[in-house]
Design a protein that fits this description.
- The chain is 45% helix and 10% strand.
- The strands form four sheets. Strands 1-2-3-4-6-5 form a six-stranded antiparallel sheet, covered by helices on one side. The protein has a two-stranded antiparallel sheet with strand order 7-8.
- The protein has 18 helices and twelve strands.
- A hairpin with a 3-residue loop joins strand 1 (3-4) and strand 2.
- Mean pLDDT is 76; it is low at 42-46, 150-155, 161-174, 283-348 and 371-381.
Length: 545
């Protein structure tokens, strides 16, 4: 087993994404089992600014001490790879419980995660998670739900994207599925209500087995789709609470603190679950924030100009300089024995409230105007529109990753390949072919060999990778043939070698010859005479043997 950074014995790969991979490791110094999260190289060791940026961001997470946050234990950089050491949760994330969660567990999930969010949102400056989904919530040994950043949080993701030239907007469908509708507007600024929406979508999926708006998430809702009711035999209060979390208007959603209180009460007093009460939602009040956090009315990071924003902001064009909209106002108490003096000020207070109300209406109308879609966008999105939008996003991502495949830098290529593999996992046909071609043994193909060398895969004298790579090759070649409706003659040709030579599979000469024959016909049908000739040469060689 490999030892990472001279200390951590890598025992099992637990997960892999576009920006990182997570391993189960054993600390050779203590013998304790831990989780190791290795990020793609964000900067070379000589790039002090880049490493300092990540150090500051990871410091936020390390210092976030809450019982429902999987707090990192250690952060360092090894061979240009930033990495985190975290507690190991043997139960893993909650994805395996989708559609199987009872009402009791749903309330517990809401309480624990909302409690973690309330802590993050209450930090100074606030931390927004921006990627809440089942894969980012773990179950610890005591049955507590732990919020983690095993996806990539907004702060870390923005830094990694800047340093690795990764387009942070090219997110997978799995993340889009949980995005709030305002994330698709022109004024897509991070606010706390984004996290509340994502949590509501997550709990809805855990309880029902499907997402409220499918894989398109808030995009459908942004275009006018109605919020569905949580199906099944769940209490009126749980249905109402999730409906509140999924409100189209961000300020109509409860805060994390309110959610925690609602869930805690539902757990302590199950009889209250049949009582549906109106939630006192926070108004879009205006709070003063320090001037040093602002640049022309917009927030800046306390860690320097190169950091992405860490202060939750509403659309900047309606926020007066020195203010932030959307944070609940501090509670103002009242006394039962009010003095005559305070009563004498009542007309003044009423006048002030009237002015504030008028200003609030104007601000609200400006907000609606700035964030509203086009005139016809209030109509529900058609299936054709949804498909076209998804296809465009996939095409943009594919072109981005494919362009980066030309690099000769191993770290950059690995980052691009991880992104391409994630896109292929979503079923995008061209991405599936590129991944299959990279994994496959393609004799005498210089490009395929170049890719394997950049990925540091061991090759024998004939360019054949090891068993693990070959197993992946068979999987992806078969998938490429499948998504092409059996027209991908190149994948058929490469796959035939695995059956004819019993590479990572049992020898099946009949299957291999069948693939060659089908590949030859498809190559001719596509007028690829050169590749058809290559297939014919292979067929003739086999006949002579």
């Amino acid at each position: 087993m490999e030892i990472f950074d001279g200390r951590y014995e890598q025992q099992q790969l637990l997960g892999k994404g576009a920006f990182s991979e997570v391993w189960k490791v054993r600390d050779t110094q203590t013998g304790v089992t831990l989780a190791l999260k290795i990020y793609m190289p964000a900067a070379t060791t000589s790039n002090t600014e880049g490493n300092d940026m990540l150090t500051h961001e990871f410091a936020l997470m390390v210092n976030a001490n809450h019982k429902n946050l999987l707090r990192p234990l250690f952060f360092n950089v090894c061979n240009s790879h930033p990495y985190l050491i975290l507690p190991y949760c043997k139960e893993g994330n909650i994805s395996k419980f989708i559609g199987k969660m009872s009402e009791e567990e749903a309330w517990k999930l809401l309480r624990d995660t909302a409690s973690a969010l309330a802590y993050l949102h209450g930090m100074n400056p606030p931390i927004l998670h921006q990627d809440i989904k089942p894969a980012n919530i773990l179950l610890d040994d005591n049955g507590n739900y732990m919020l983690t950043d095993f996806g990539v949080s907004t702060q870390v993701k923005s830094s990694l994207s800047r340093m690795s030239n990764q387009d942070m907007d090219l997110t997978s469908a799995g993340t889009i599925s949980y995005m709030a509708p305002e994330r698709f507007s022109r004024n897509n600024l991070p606010i706390m209500a984004n996290d509340i929406y994502s949590l509501g979508s997550t709990v809805f999926e855990m309880a029902s087995g499907f997402l409220p708006f499918g894989t398109d998430g808030g995009l459908l809702q942004y275009k006018g789709a109605e919020i569905p009711e949580l199906p099944g035999d769940f209490s009126p209060l749980l249905k109402k609470t999730l409906d509140d979390c999924l409100q189209t208007e961000p300020w109509q959603r409860p805060t994390a603190e309110q959610l925690e209180q609602i869930a805690s009460d539902a757990l302590q007093h199950p009889e209250h679950r049949n009582e549906v009460r109106t939630t006192d939602r926070p108004a879009p009040t205006i709070l003063q924030i320090p001037e040093e956090y602002l640049v022309d009315g917009k927030s800046k990071s306390v860690f320097g100009a190169n950091m992405r924003q860490t202060v939750a902001m509403s659309p900047a064009d309606i926020a007066p300089k020195g203010t932030v909209i959307g944070t609940p106002a501090p509670h103002i108490g009242s006394s039962s024995d009010a003095s005559v003096k305070s009563r004498s000020r009542l007309p003044i207070y009423l006048g002030i409230l009237a002015v504030v109300a008028v200003i609030g209406v104007v601000v609200w109308l400006l907000f609606l105007k700035s964030s509203a879609p086009e005139e016809n966008a209030t109509q529900p999105l058609s299936a054709a529109d949804i498909e076209a939008a998804n296809l465009q996003m996939q095409e943009d991502a594919y072109r981005n990753y494919l362009a980066k495949f030309a690099t000769e830098n191993a770290d950059s290529f690995k980052t691009a390949f991880n992104g391409m593999e994630a896109l292929a996992a979503d079923g995008y046909r061209d991405a599936v072919f590129q991944v299959a071609f990279t994994y496959a043994w393609c004799p005498k193909d210089a490009e395929s060999t170049r890719r394997k060398k950049l990925l540091n895969w061991k090759l024998d004298a004939n360019g054949l990778p090891d068993a693990n790579v070959n197993t992946q090759a068979i999987k992806w070649l078969n998938q490429s043939i499948q998504v092409s409706d059996s027209t991908d003659y190149k994948s058929m040709y490469w796959l035939s070698f695995y059956y004819l030579n019993s590479i990572a599979t049992q020898k099946d000469a009949a299957r291999g010859l069948q693939l060659l024959s089908k590949a030859h016909r498809e190559a001719l049908r596509n007028a690829d005479t050169d590749f058809a000739a290559k297939i014919a040469d292979t067929q003739n060689t086999i006949k002579k043997q």
